[in-house]
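Dear colleagues,

As part of the handover before I leave the project, I'm documenting each prediction I ran so the next person doesn't have to rerun anything. This entry is a single chain, and its sequence is reproduced below.
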Amino acid sequence: MNKTSFSSSTNILNNCIKKLSKIISILANYSKHHLSLKSLKKIVKMTTSSVIYKGNLRTICTHLDSGNQIITDAPKDNSGNGEAFSPTDLAATSLATCMLTVMGIKAKEMDIDLKSTKAEVTKIMVSDPRRIGAINVKIHFPELEEFEDEKNRIIFQRIALNCPVYHSLHPDIEKNIEFIF
């Protein structure tokens, strides 16, 4: 083997090592976030919405499947008009809507009517950096015979505390959930 072909083989080998290192790094990162290779097969990537900045600290968000829109404004305490949900309001509210939705799925399976179940959401902001520090959610259930049974109350509490948004929020965000039956 001459010097040129040895050098070329070394370059190819180094490139392969770099690519393999990158793949290992990606897999390690997934592993850090509790994703197994098996669960990676279940990941579905799809465009959910489009967001247009309209100026004056306002956006219009369009849900692509339905065409429904949400307007956001910066809050008054952060140079905005506060005329609509702020982005952090939506994040906090998403926790409650997700909890109600997954409980609704379970209620449908159990033939329980959860209509009129209400969630009150309080978002607490902190600084350095400005972010959501805590989300308080009070879930008020309608008076139903099914909730006289402790087992059913526990089922719905566990379902709510395992909703996707709950597990997607940063662990530094304090989540205080109160269930009122």
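The first strand starts at residue 49 and ends at 55. Strands lie at 49-55, 58-63, 69-73, 118-126, 131-140, 174-180.

All the best with the project,
I.
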